[in-house]
Amino acid sequence: MNRFPKLLARPLALAAVGLSLLLGASGCASVPRVGVTSDFDHAVNFRAYKTWGWYPDQPTDAEGGPAKGYNSFFDKRMRAAVDAEMKRKGLTLVEKSPDVFVAYSARVEDKQRTNPNAYGPYAYYPFWYGPGASRWNQVTDYKAGNVIIDIVDAKRKELVWRGYGQTQVDQQTISEAEVNRIVAGVLGDFPPSDNTARR
Prior knowledge:
The chain is an alpha/beta fold and 199 residues long. Helix content is 28%, strand content 30%.
């Protein structure tokens, strides 16, 4: 019965247990979080908006293909994701005379992340504090997908709400799953709540 406490009392065993817990947690890591910000016209009554349409000058070939006149995969994904989220908000897509127009812009850019907690050259062994464990900044390259969604009052032709979202993506284009996640994150703040909108 005393074997287990004795085993945990050994420093080497403690390090092994800690490392296994760390690896187990990293194996269950969730998808990258979507960072979201938004801004809006505080004088607008957003509850008055019932219908929406795509902004007439919204470009359809957002990926910059060699020809015009057709929709890119990304544009189709964005339109489907925005349509689904606006339906959840209770707004109806119409062809003529909408209350608001929706426009978007998107890009993927190369970024770098600095981890100031790394210890090199033993950065992946957090329980090692012996010789050579000098503190250093570990830099990781990654791709960030950026999406801006604008809500424009159709009658006044004025921007009334803007949402911005950014998240880490796997490739130079934003996949369907990533588009759905980013759009849901951005439009999660629309419309502003009564308490926020009436400030």
